[in-house]
Amino acid sequence: MRTPIVLALIIILAPYGSSTEGTKIIDHSGDSILEDLSPVVQSAFNRAMSDDSDFEAHRGAWILLSNSGFEVLSQTLPAGQLIELDWIKGAYLWSPNQKTSQLKALELLKESSVVEVFIPDSVERQTPRFVPNDPDYPDQWHLDNSGQSGGTIGEDVNITSAWNNLNGSGVTISIVDDGLDHNHPDISPNYVPSLSYDFCSSDTDPQPVGNEAHGTAAGGVAGAAGNNGIDVVGAGFGANLAGSRLIACSSPDSLEAQALSFMSQSIDIYSNSWGPSDDGATLSGPGPLTLAAMEDGVYNGRGGLGNIYTWAAGNGLQSDDDSNADGYTNSRFTIAVTAVDHNGEQSYYAEPGANILVSAPSNGAGVGITTTDIVGSSGYTNGDTTSNFGGTSSATPLVSGVISLILEANPNLTWRDVQEVLVQSSRKNDFNDPSWMLNQGGHWFSHKYGFGVIDAGSATDLAINWTMLAPETNLTYGPSSSPIAIPDTDDWVVSDFTVTEHLNVETIDIIVDITHPNRGDLEIEIVSPHGTVSTLRSPNGDNGEDIQDWSFGSVAHWGESSNGTWSLRIRDAASGSAGVLNTWSLILHGIDTQSDHDGDGLLTVDEVGTYGTDPYVWDTDSDSLSDSSELENGTDPLSSDTDLDGLLDGIEILIHSTDPLSPDTDGDGLLDGQEIMIYLSDPLSPDQDSDGDFYYEFEDCDDTNALINPGRPEVLNGLDDDCDINVDEGFNFTDRDFDGLKDWNEFHVHQTDYLNSDTDGDGLSDGDEILIFSTDPLVVDLDSDQDGRYWFEDCNDDDPLISPDGAEFLDGIDNDCDNDVDEDFVNTDLDLDGVFDFEEFNIYLTNPVNPDSDGDGLSDGHEISNSLTDPLSFDSDSDSDGF
Q1: For residues 676 and 203, what is the distance between their CA atoms, to the nearest angstrom?
Q2: Which of 59, 68, 566, 828 has the least CB density, counted as fewest CB within 10 Å?
Q3: What is the enclosing helix (H) or strand (E) of 391?
Q4: Angle between helices 456-464 and 392-409 (to 10 degrees)
Q5: Paired sense of beta strands 172-177 and 240-245, if any
Q6: Within this chain, domains 33-120 and 137-464 share the same CATH topology
Q7: Of 210, 207, 219, nearest in space to 179 by CA
Q8: Bridge pairing between strands 197-198 and 269-272
Q9: Strand pairing category for 269-272 and 308-312
């Protein structure tokens, strides 16, 4: 399937899984049983503990994890049956006798550390796993191997359980190949034209030309639409599919670089089922631009998380080819995928290599892969599907599809995290094959199978609760300084580098420059300090000359420590010619387990794996304390204010000497932050509340009086009741007794009662007394003669007939108190004697109502005005003559 056309085609799939080493008891001597369990088992417990809504109602058995021992549990648990389980040391099954809720009892035992974990032994009705309704799905044994093709049941990618919750939704896979038939009814639903391009024709349509069916078949394996009742289903049947038409034409370095960096922020996975010729005599790889494009992709693509590059390891086994002769799969930026058949064994064409990360099911043993074909008769068949696809070209897009599920499960995974997930979750297949070796990192590795067959179920479970890897460190040793002869013997030539750093190795690059007339004679290995051997090249029929500046890649040492001597071993396995190892270099990539990149006193690996702090920032939470200082002090390096008192942890320790673990250092009921930033009080000295009014001394203007504090209403009493520095504020606008005086003035100026309009009770309002009468509102005003007029308005308060309301009489008295006497009689003449009454009474003393006061027959007026006689003295007329 990887056809030799300068660039050959390969079909790829990568399954996830875990090695099956048989049942064994897991011993936990540490404090926590849960933390010592495998990630998959831990995640199962965590899921059960997080879903606690039914704990109260549970009436059945419980699963317990406890280091307390059988006897202690028997004595402390309520009556029931206790069984110690075989699979995990410290695990028990407890069935209480009473069918009542046992939640409170278990919670108490957990609080007292008798029990670490408890979960219900739930009885669930099992439901069938998701089975797509696509008509050709039963033939897709690589997804669900029921033995339908005569193969081994279960030799598949274990994807159906993952499909219960995941299908690659939101993840984009680009099929970089000879085109993608986006008109295919199983391709079109997932096809994204804006992320697709034809690099051969320089247009936006990657539709294949003629019988270019390879990319369409690969696309179907990766992401054909599923459960739509049409044809087949892809591993990531909910993923977006993009197409890049590249290998249908001669593709120079620059064009490959463009294709592998196209829309790198939107495309997540580049699936590549192509590479150099698999003839066993070709040593070829990407040019510098392509390598740079991939490097940029993993460091900057996908929002900085890194693009995923899957690559077919090659189909040249029958030509004694090795994937280490392929520069694309040698790159640590790619996931090299090889193939196994429906029995889980190496496919007859599948190349081995130290660079192979995973295996995936593909054709072999007479059985092919069923997938999409170009619509019509231009493809592999005359229909829309083919059942004869295969090679590592099919295995690779299968891995791409599974990775889409992994990224859907955890979109935050970096490109290195994805590789680590695959290493940890892949399933050890062909268990008894002698190629398997256990490296010092605890991983089983095979040059035939990598870390095993990809297992979608295990990989997605692992990804969900994944802890991100620490940043990578790269160590370079070499190039070596002196050439070393390679004799024409069977003896090993060895060259060493001693590595002093402690790196948790992920991948290694071995760059060699060898002069030899027949490089097919050479066998090349790299041996780690722990004895793990990576076979980089085995003797074959390659008659080519030299191995010039070739970079071999190996993943076989994943998880091993870098510290120690690394040995490059070369020997000439055939007679006839000799050679020279001119130079070689060793580059190790992984996690530095002893470096502290930010100088905060914590190892980088611990910051990422244990504490979750930023390994490149000495103070992750920016609270002025280094991450290590926080751990020493017991504060949280991820929270700038551990005790939530409003003060940064560093400010508490370095400036105020307060306790960063106690929000109220002096125990006075006030947060340290409140005391310092709001109340300006001393957080190290308890503040008092002497009067018990819930206001501290620093905020209470009178801490001896509970009725005076900032929470009290202001009262008109001459005191600052509400402690606002103002006295009786607000009362200069009120008049509660409606006497015309403001309350403030009554209290402070007049000393009158602001709630009594007549303070002295004299019938006059205080306002009238002050504003109108100018009398003293504190002294009772009298009305002695009871004439309704007070003394201050009555000109004679002893005579009720004299008042402002009295009538003026002609009596020589001011009867109406208007300061005028007899004023009403100035112009009146009641007796018509020609003299005004006022004059009669006050001047002439005559009788104003008697015209002749002296009775002498002459009117008073006549006597006064005419005869000029005394009107009060009788004038006689002795002779009675009228004169």
Answers
A1: 67
A2: 59
A3: none
A4: 30
A5: parallel
A6: no
A7: 207
A8: unpaired
A9: parallel
Q: What are residue 405's phi and psi, to 5 degrees?
A: -70, -40
**How far is the C-alpha of 620 from the C-alpha of 150, rounded, in Å?**
57
SS3 category, 296: helix
Q: Which residues contact 576 (CB under 8 A, 6 or more apart)?
A: 488, 518, 521
SS3 annotation, 277-343: CCCCCCCECCCHHHHHHHHHHHHHCHHHCCCEEEEECCCCHHHCCCHHHEHHHHCCCEEEEEEECCC
Would you name the residues annotated as active-site residues?
Answer: 177, 214, 393
The full DSSP string for 805-836 is: TSPP-SSSS-TTSSS-SSGGGTT--TT-SSS-
> In the structure encoding, which two tokens stand for residue 466, read together?
């994944």
CA distances from 198 to 187, 245, 339 (A): 17, 5, 28
Kindly report, residue by residue over 655-710, the tens digit of the pLDDT: 999 999 999 999 999 999 999 999 899 999 999 989 999 899 888 999 999 999 99
Q: Where are the domains of the chain?
A: 33-120, 137-464, 473-592, 731-781
Q: Which residues contact 749 (CB under 8 A, 6 or more apart)?
A: none
722 within 8 A of 731, measured Cβ to Cβ: no
* Cα 168 from Cα 433, distance rounded (Å): 33
Q: How far apart are CA 446 and CA 625, in angstroms?
A: 47
Return the pLDDT at 608.
82
Closest CA to 335 of 345, 323, 325: 323
CA neighbours closer than 13 Å in the CB half-sphere of residue 230: 18
Phi, psi (deg, nearest 5) at residue 770: -85, -45
Q: Which tokens sit at 32?
A: 């926590």
Of 350, 394, 343, 363, the closest CA to residue 224 belongs to: 394
d(CA 745, CA 17): 90
Q: In what order do the strands lie in the sheet with 533-537?
A: 493-499, 564-572, 522-527, 533-537
End-to-end CA, the chain: 177
| Rounded distance between C-alpha atoms, residue 249 and residue 596, angstroms | 49
CA–CA dist 738, 767 (Å, integer) = 9
Tokens at 206, concatenated: 């990657």
Got the DSSP string for 548-599? EEEEEEE-TTTT-B--EEEEEEEEE-SSS--EEEEEEEEEEEEEESS--TT-
In the three-class reduction of DSSP (H, G, I as helix; E, B as strand; rest coil), residue 739 is classed as coil
- According to CATH, what is the number of the domain 137-464? 3.40.50.200
- What is the mean pLDDT of the segment spanning 518-540? 97
Residue 390 · residue 1 · CB < 8 Å: yes
Its CATH architecture, for the domain 33-120, is 2-Layer Sandwich (3.30)
Q: Looking at residue 790, what DSSP letter applies? A: -
Question: In this predicted structure, which of 58-62, 174-178, 198-202, 404-408 has the lowest mean pLDDT?
Answer: 58-62
Which helix (H) or strand (E) covers residue 71, if one does? Answer: helix 70-76
The CATH code of domain 473-592 reads 2.60.120.260
- d(CA 493, CA 522) in angstroms, rounded, equals 11
Q: How big is the chain, counted in residues?
A: 883
Please state, in angstroms and rounded to a whole number, the distance separating the CA atoms of residues 359 and 296. Answer: 26
Q: In 3D, which of 389, 335, 386, 340 has the Cα closest to residue 361?
A: 340
Helices and strands, number each (H, E), in the chain: 19, 27
Six token digits for residue 764: 């006059």
Amino acid at the residue 702: D
